[in-house]
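Final report, results section. Input specification for complex C-07:
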Amino acid sequence: MARQMKTANKYKEMDILPVMSLMTVLIPVLLSMSAFQKLAIVDINLPERSEISRDSEPPPPDDNALNLTVAISKDEHQGYIEIWARGGSLPKIFFREMWTFRCRSDNDTITHDPRTVNKENPPKCQDGRTLDPDRFQFSIETIHLWALHKESEEDPGRILMSVYSKNDSAYVDGNNDFVTSLEAIRPGSTVATLAANSARRLACGQSAPGVEDVCSGGQLAATLRPRSAYDELARLLMALHSRFIDSPDADNITIVADDDTAFDKLVGVMDRARDSGFYKIQLAKLAAGE
Amino acid sequence: MPRQPRKYGEVESLSLTAMMDVMTIILVFLIKQVDAEGQLLTAADNLTLPNSTSTKVPKEVSLGLVVDQNWVLVDGQQVVRTDSVASQDNLLVDALDAVLKEKRDQEKQAMLARGESDEGGGNVIVQLDKNTYYDIMFKVMATCGYSGFTNVAFAVNMIGGEEF
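Structure output:
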C-alpha cells in the first residue's frame, strides 16, 4: 500500500475515544476501591491480670513511681472521672452525660440528657418527629460529658462553662486555667489551648505561626459553652505529666472503668491520655460486686 | 453575531478534549486516594466506630475481630453471641479462645514455613461499636491476650478523616 502523503496544513484530531473508554472503566473501579472514611487504631498494652478493687487503697507506690490511674465511674447522682497518682487522689471531675442525636428527617442535631429519654419517651427532633423508640441509642452521634462544679456530695452541681475556639479546642490562660468569659478572647490577647507550646496571640483576619485568626466573616468565632470533662481531664493530666516527668513510669497510665461504661468514653479518655504524653495505656477492671 | 446556518450533510464531531481533561483530573485524584489508604483495615458494616484524635494507622496485616450488637466475629465468621459474652462471669470467652488459638497456630505454622522466627505475639485489630460496654470489651481483650494475640489495637474513626 502506498503511503499517503500528508497534506501540510490539514490538522487532524487525535482519536481519543479509546482513551475515554479506558477512563470510564478505570474511574468506577477506583471509586469502588477508595475509602471515604479514614480509620486509625489505638494501641493498648494488655490488661493487668490482677484486678483493682475500688475500696482498697491502690498498691503502695515506690517513692518515685507515679502509678497514674484514671477511673471512669459513677455514684447515684452523677458520673465522675477520678485520678489517682502517687497513691493519692485528685478531686473527682463530675460530669453530666449528654447524648447528641442526628435526626434522619431533617439532618439536624438534638441533645438530650439520657435520663429524660427512654422507650416511652424517645428523643424528639426539631421538626417534631421522634426517633425509633427501640433503636434510638444507636443513632447517638456524640456522647458529651459536661463538667460540673459541686460544693458537696448532695449538690446537684453547676455546669461549668468555657470558651471554645472555632476548631473546638478549649482556651486556657497563662495560669493554665480555663477561659470562662468571652471578654478575654479578643484580637491582641494571648491565650493557649490544651496542647504543648500552644500559646498564641489572637488576631482578626490574619493567621501566621503563633498568631490565630479568631474571626470568621468579621465576627468573633469563639463560643461559650459547657466545658467538656475530657478537657478538664486533659488539663490535669498535662500538669501531672510535666510535673512528674522524671518518674520511671512517667509515660504509663492505667484506665479503669465500670462494666457499663460505653467504649466511646474510653476512647475519649485514651485520646486525652495520649495527647497529654501518657502513651503507654493499660486497661484494668474494677472488681465486681462492690 | 448572527448564527450561521448549518450546511446539510456536514458531520460535526463531538469535541472530547474538555471531557478528557475532567476525567484525567478525577483519575489522578482517585489514584492518589487509593494509594494513600493502604487498605489494611476496612470498617465492618453494622457498627459505628468511635471518633478519635489518633493518627496511627495499621502497619501490617492483622487478624480482624469485630464485636457488633449481636455477634462476635473473627475474620467475618460468627463465633459467639455478644449477649452471652456480656452475661458470663468468667473473663475468658471459651468459644472465642478456641477460634483464636487455632488462628494463632495457623499464623505460627505460616511463619515457620517461611523460615521466620515467631517472636512476640500476634496482632489483632478489634472493632467495637461505640456503645459497647467496657465489660464486653475487657473480656474480648483478655481472651485475645490469653490466646496469644498480645498486640491488641482498637479501630477508631480518624477525626477529620472525611475531608479531603
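The radius of gyration of chain A is 27 Å. Chain A touches chain B through 48 residues (CB under 8 Å). This concludes the modelling results for the funded period.
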